[in-house]
Amino acid sequence: MADIAGQANDGMDEDTQKGKFLTFSLGNEYYGLEISYVTEIIGIQPITEIPELPDYVKGIVNLRGKIVPVMDVRLRFKKPFREYNDRTCIIVIDIKDISIGLIVDSVSEVLTIPDNNIVPPPDMKAAQNKYIKGIGKVESEIKLLLDCEKLLTDDEATNFSNL
Protein backbone atom coordinates (compact mmCIF):
# COMPACT_ATOMS: atom_id res chain seq x y z
CA MET A 1 0.00 0.00 0.00
CA ALA A 2 2.86 2.40 0.75
CA ASP A 3 4.18 2.01 -2.81
CA ILE A 4 0.81 2.90 -4.26
CA ALA A 5 0.46 5.84 -1.90
CA GLY A 6 3.93 6.99 -2.85
CA GLN A 7 2.98 6.93 -6.51
CA ALA A 8 -0.22 8.80 -5.80
CA ASN A 9 0.97 12.36 -5.85
CA ASP A 10 4.58 12.84 -4.75
CA GLY A 11 6.12 15.71 -6.62
CA MET A 12 4.16 15.11 -9.80
CA ASP A 13 3.17 18.11 -11.82
CA GLU A 14 -0.09 18.19 -13.70
CA ASP A 15 1.39 16.86 -16.97
CA THR A 16 2.85 13.74 -15.37
CA GLN A 17 -0.47 13.10 -13.61
CA LYS A 18 -2.53 13.33 -16.79
CA GLY A 19 -4.10 10.00 -17.67
CA LYS A 20 -3.07 8.40 -14.35
CA PHE A 21 -5.76 6.78 -12.23
CA LEU A 22 -5.68 5.11 -8.84
CA THR A 23 -7.77 1.97 -9.26
CA PHE A 24 -9.78 0.27 -6.54
CA SER A 25 -12.50 -2.33 -6.19
CA LEU A 26 -15.98 -2.52 -4.75
CA GLY A 27 -16.86 -6.19 -4.90
CA ASN A 28 -16.38 -7.32 -8.52
CA GLU A 29 -16.43 -3.81 -9.98
CA TYR A 30 -13.27 -1.81 -10.62
CA TYR A 31 -13.10 1.96 -10.45
CA GLY A 32 -10.52 4.65 -11.07
CA LEU A 33 -9.92 8.09 -9.57
CA GLU A 34 -7.79 10.74 -11.25
CA ILE A 35 -4.53 10.65 -9.34
CA SER A 36 -4.45 14.45 -9.08
CA TYR A 37 -7.25 14.27 -6.47
CA VAL A 38 -5.52 11.67 -4.29
CA THR A 39 -3.45 12.86 -1.33
CA GLU A 40 -2.84 9.53 0.40
CA ILE A 41 -4.05 6.00 1.03
CA ILE A 42 -4.41 4.60 4.54
CA GLY A 43 -5.66 1.36 6.00
CA ILE A 44 -9.05 1.33 7.65
CA GLN A 45 -8.91 2.77 11.15
CA PRO A 46 -11.34 3.61 13.96
CA ILE A 47 -14.04 6.00 12.76
CA THR A 48 -15.84 8.37 15.13
CA GLU A 49 -19.51 8.40 14.22
CA ILE A 50 -21.41 11.67 14.07
CA PRO A 51 -25.20 11.59 14.51
CA GLU A 52 -27.67 12.67 11.85
CA LEU A 53 -25.41 12.25 8.84
CA PRO A 54 -26.46 10.26 5.76
CA ASP A 55 -25.77 6.52 6.13
CA TYR A 56 -22.93 6.60 3.58
CA VAL A 57 -21.02 9.13 5.71
CA LYS A 58 -19.47 6.87 8.33
CA GLY A 59 -18.04 9.68 10.47
CA ILE A 60 -14.61 11.24 10.91
CA VAL A 61 -11.02 10.10 11.41
CA ASN A 62 -8.12 11.96 12.97
CA LEU A 63 -5.34 11.99 10.40
CA ARG A 64 -2.24 13.39 12.08
CA GLY A 65 -4.30 16.05 13.83
CA LYS A 66 -6.51 16.85 10.83
CA ILE A 67 -10.18 15.85 11.07
CA VAL A 68 -11.24 14.10 7.84
CA PRO A 69 -14.84 13.03 7.11
CA VAL A 70 -15.10 9.53 5.62
CA MET A 71 -17.64 8.24 3.12
CA ASP A 72 -18.30 4.57 2.38
CA VAL A 73 -18.31 4.50 -1.43
CA ARG A 74 -20.33 1.25 -1.44
CA LEU A 75 -23.16 2.95 0.44
CA ARG A 76 -22.87 6.12 -1.66
CA PHE A 77 -23.46 3.93 -4.71
CA LYS A 78 -26.41 2.20 -2.97
CA LYS A 79 -24.58 -1.13 -2.75
CA PRO A 80 -24.95 -3.40 0.30
CA PHE A 81 -22.67 -2.71 3.26
CA ARG A 82 -19.70 -5.04 3.60
CA GLU A 83 -17.75 -5.54 6.81
CA TYR A 84 -14.35 -3.87 6.77
CA ASN A 85 -11.30 -6.12 6.74
CA ASP A 86 -7.52 -5.88 6.38
CA ARG A 87 -7.88 -5.08 2.64
CA THR A 88 -10.29 -2.19 3.26
CA CYS A 89 -8.64 1.18 2.59
CA ILE A 90 -9.41 4.84 2.94
CA ILE A 91 -8.39 6.90 -0.09
CA VAL A 92 -7.99 10.51 1.03
CA ILE A 93 -8.86 12.95 -1.75
CA ASP A 94 -9.17 16.72 -2.01
CA ILE A 95 -12.32 17.97 -3.70
CA LYS A 96 -13.90 21.41 -3.49
CA ASP A 97 -11.13 22.45 -1.04
CA ILE A 98 -12.13 19.68 1.37
CA SER A 99 -10.23 16.55 2.33
CA ILE A 100 -12.50 13.52 2.42
CA GLY A 101 -11.76 9.84 2.94
CA LEU A 102 -13.33 7.30 0.60
CA ILE A 103 -13.73 3.82 2.09
CA VAL A 104 -13.20 1.16 -0.59
CA ASP A 105 -12.92 -2.64 -0.51
CA SER A 106 -9.32 -2.62 -1.74
CA VAL A 107 -6.86 -0.46 -3.66
CA SER A 108 -5.34 -2.01 -6.77
CA GLU A 109 -2.72 0.08 -8.57
CA VAL A 110 -1.95 3.31 -10.38
CA LEU A 111 -2.68 2.91 -14.10
CA THR A 112 -2.09 5.14 -17.08
CA ILE A 113 -5.18 5.14 -19.29
CA PRO A 114 -4.73 7.16 -22.50
CA ASP A 115 -7.61 9.40 -23.59
CA ASN A 116 -8.24 7.20 -26.64
CA ASN A 117 -8.99 4.27 -24.27
CA ILE A 118 -11.65 6.24 -22.39
CA VAL A 119 -15.23 6.37 -23.64
CA PRO A 120 -18.20 8.27 -22.20
CA PRO A 121 -20.52 6.28 -19.92
CA PRO A 122 -23.76 4.97 -21.43
CA ASP A 123 -26.57 7.50 -21.27
CA MET A 124 -28.68 5.83 -18.61
CA LYS A 125 -30.79 7.51 -15.99
CA ALA A 126 -29.37 5.42 -13.12
CA ALA A 127 -28.40 7.59 -10.16
CA GLN A 128 -25.00 5.91 -9.83
CA ASN A 129 -24.18 6.85 -13.40
CA LYS A 130 -23.91 10.52 -12.40
CA TYR A 131 -20.67 9.71 -10.58
CA ILE A 132 -19.09 8.08 -13.64
CA LYS A 133 -17.05 10.40 -15.88
CA GLY A 134 -15.90 7.74 -18.33
CA ILE A 135 -15.14 4.10 -18.92
CA GLY A 136 -11.50 3.17 -19.20
CA LYS A 137 -10.47 0.16 -21.26
CA VAL A 138 -7.32 -1.51 -19.94
CA GLU A 139 -6.43 -4.65 -21.89
CA SER A 140 -9.42 -6.96 -21.30
CA GLU A 141 -10.67 -5.09 -18.23
CA ILE A 142 -13.00 -2.15 -17.75
CA LYS A 143 -12.52 0.55 -15.10
CA LEU A 144 -15.36 2.90 -14.22
CA LEU A 145 -13.71 6.32 -13.93
CA LEU A 146 -15.25 8.50 -11.24
CA ASP A 147 -16.00 12.19 -11.48
CA CYS A 148 -14.62 13.24 -8.08
CA GLU A 149 -16.32 16.63 -8.27
CA LYS A 150 -19.74 14.92 -8.32
CA LEU A 151 -19.12 12.66 -5.31
CA LEU A 152 -20.22 15.57 -3.11
CA THR A 153 -23.11 17.93 -3.74
CA ASP A 154 -22.48 21.58 -2.90
CA ASP A 155 -24.59 21.19 0.25
CA GLU A 156 -22.57 18.15 1.34
CA ALA A 157 -19.33 20.01 0.68
CA THR A 158 -20.55 22.85 2.90
CA ASN A 159 -21.59 20.41 5.64
CA PHE A 160 -18.27 18.53 5.47
CA SER A 161 -16.25 21.73 5.65
CA ASN A 162 -18.08 22.50 8.92
CA LEU A 163 -17.09 19.18 10.56
From TrEMBL:
It comes from the Bacteria. It holds the Pfam family CheW. SUPFAM superfamilies: CheW-like (SSF50341). SMART domains: CheW. CDD domains: CheW. GO terms for cellular component: cytosol. Residues 18-157 form the CheW-like domain. One of its GO terms (biological process) is chemotaxis. PANTHER family: CHEMOTAXIS PROTEIN CHEW, CHEMOTAXIS SENSOR HISTIDINE KINASE-RELATED. This is Purine-binding chemotaxis protein CheW. It comes from Sporomusa malonica.
